Amino acid sequence: MNKITNPGILRWRLLLGEAAKSNLGQLDEGYLKIDAALEWLYGQDPSKTEQGERSADLGDSRLTVPEWINEINELFPKEVIERLEKDAIELYGIDEVVTNLEVLERIEPSETLLKAVLHTKHLMNPDVLAAARKLVQAVVKQIMDRLAKEIRQSFSGTRDRNKPSSIKIARNFDFKRTVKTNLHRFDAKTKKLYIDSPAFMSRVKKHTEKWDLFLLVDQSGSMVSSVIHSAVMAACLWQLPGMKTHLIAFDTQIVDLTSNVNDPVELLMKVQLGGGTHINKAVAYTQSRISNPSRSLIVIISDFYEGGSESDLVRIVQTAVQAGTKVLGLAALDSTAHPNYDKALATRLVAVGAQIGAMTPGQLATWLAEKIQG
């Protein structure tokens, strides 16, 4: 079947849905997810809502309500998202997340549900919002417990292989010295080495005073996973001695959330997802807050689809690097570190001294520790 190339026919195909495929043609791969998201909603039978037949996961649909909410926030602009949400609630009665307090109170907390709550909290009444806050708190605690350990390990100092340690913890285990000092206990018959005295190496902690870390977080809908992990990471880093962590959210406007950086739940409830992306404004704002460039790090967490001036962004980043500030750009910051970003703009930023990549929070913590301690 031929792929649709005519823009007018494409719009009719998306409007009419799956039923028009045989007459109008096959959608290109890039539009299949859009078609699936629209079909998920407009392919529903409104009469089933009135008869009470709709289940919590909407029957046989592949997507749950939270997954669908997250999907449309990645695929559509803000005005389309608002229309889809309005139709979902008013036409089809899909209120499992945004208006149904009972469902929200009994549902199992998960990162997928947290994303959906952040996308739709502006639609919630006060009672539902209070329940949503508890859910946010539960998921944030799960992430924070995991992430705090990774960060502590990264900043606990480098290992000194020449100096033994009496602190017997796994990450200080010295394999080579352990084998060497216990070779006399090797049993040739069983071919096993019996360990009597495990060896450990010490760590050298380095001074990390007066460092300013600026986390600049793109709050467009597609970056929600990175927003969540940035908020939690900022709270973990805020607890480290010798480091001041700033958190700045941006779309076309700048919101300095540093005053809430020690409370990731409050921080996430203040984030407004969606809108455009002006990275250059966020970096320019950060530049004005830097007092000691050689002791400052800027981490830009964005997909780098710049809605403002790309040339201004490149120029501002170059100025920061030349002044001695370390600049890291992250196309993704979550547990999967799966990037989707403007590679052309990223290449231009690398050319002026920035480092661009995609990292898990643990990998970012390791990078920060290396830059600060090295």
The count of domains is 3
Structural class: alpha/beta
> Which geometry do the CA atoms define?
globular
Number of helices: 16
CATH topology of the largest domain: Rossmann fold
Strand element count = 10
Domain VWFA: 210-369
Protein name: VWA domain containing CoxE-like protein
Pfam families: VWA_CoxE
InterPro entries: LolB, Uncharacterised_CoxE, VWF_A, vWFA_dom_sf
Describe what you observe in this structure:
- With 374 residues, the chain is α/β, with parallel strands linked by helices.
- The chain has three domains: 44-137, no CATH class; 158-204, no CATH class; 211-373, von Willebrand factor, type A domain (Rossmann fold).
- It has 16 helices and ten strands.
- It has helices spanning 7-16, 21-24, 29-42, 46-50, 65-75, 78-90, 101-106, 111-120, 126-154, 175-181, 224-238, 264-270, 279-289, 310-322, 343-351, 361-373; strands at 158-164, 186-187, 192-193, 201-204, 211-218, 243-250, 254-256, 296-301, 326-333, 355-359.
- The strands form three sheets. The protein has a six-stranded mixed β-sheet. A two-stranded antiparallel ribbon has the order 1-4.
- Strand 6 and strand 7 (254-256) form a beta hairpin.
- Helix 9 crosses helix 11 (224-238), helix 9 (126-154) crosses helix 16 and helix 11 packs antiparallel against helix 12 (264-270).
- It is globular and about 80 Å long.
- The model is unreliable at 48-61 (pLDDT under 50).
